[in-house]
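Can you please make up a protein's amino acid sequence together with its fold in token form to help me picture the idea?
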Amino acid sequence: MLTTPRAVLVAALTLSAWCALGCRESERKAVGPITLATTTSMQDSGMLDALLPKFQAETEINVRVVAVGSGQAMEIGRRGDADVLITHSPLAERTFIEEGAGVDYQSVLYNEFVLVGPPDDPARVVGAKSAAEAFGDVAEREQTFISRGDDSGTHQKELAIWKLAGIEPEGEWYLEGGVGMAQALRMADEKDAYVLTDRGTFLAIKDELQLKILFQGDPNLRNVYSVIIVNPERHPGVNVEAARKFAHFLRSSTAKKVISEFGVEKFGQPLFHPTE
């Protein structure tokens, strides 16, 4: 009968225990917590509160959220201080991808931007034929307009509409807040001002506000949100496996169902729609 020398057996057991610990550590790294840098509208609308518990229940991966404007989210990604992003600024996103800062770029959901303002509509934007015309009415009558002023996707869309209108907004009527979407809406409410907002955030807090939707429906106001994984070749610390699981989840049937139903019970309509 063959016997195993005690020293060899101890060494084997020690190696086995070390491998098990190492495997668990490796697995923990692959599925451990991730940092999501995302837009304030995803946070302020409550969409993340609906999505993240489902993802965490399926994967046991915790998600740390940093809610800022899209531009700031991409800067966080460029520094390697996040694993994955959700943004809604298509031109900036394409630049981010082209410069090699991100990978696996996919659209995941959308809603639309709307122009909201005081119920009596002193700029008379109701009936405008386009967003550019509505913005022109605000500028012509010098009615107070709140700009996010934070390089967010909403801010970039606002600037694009001013450009379409051929207007360089300036003067006492044009105020740059440098704040998130919910804060910008509250500021506009306090000042009886106009502001461009995503529909989701507005509906989520509209009961706190006197503001009303005064212009909507222009195809230029479509608001698409995309997921981007921070390039692990540029930042080796990126938890790419867990980030990919999150990106995959956002495109899953589970997430699409959550997105499609979010807001229906409370508002009678979804706040967002999943992309195909």
Observations:
- Confidence is low (pLDDT under 50) at residues 1-30.
- The chain is about 45% helix and 20% strand.
- The CA atoms of residues 45 and 204 lie 5 Å apart.
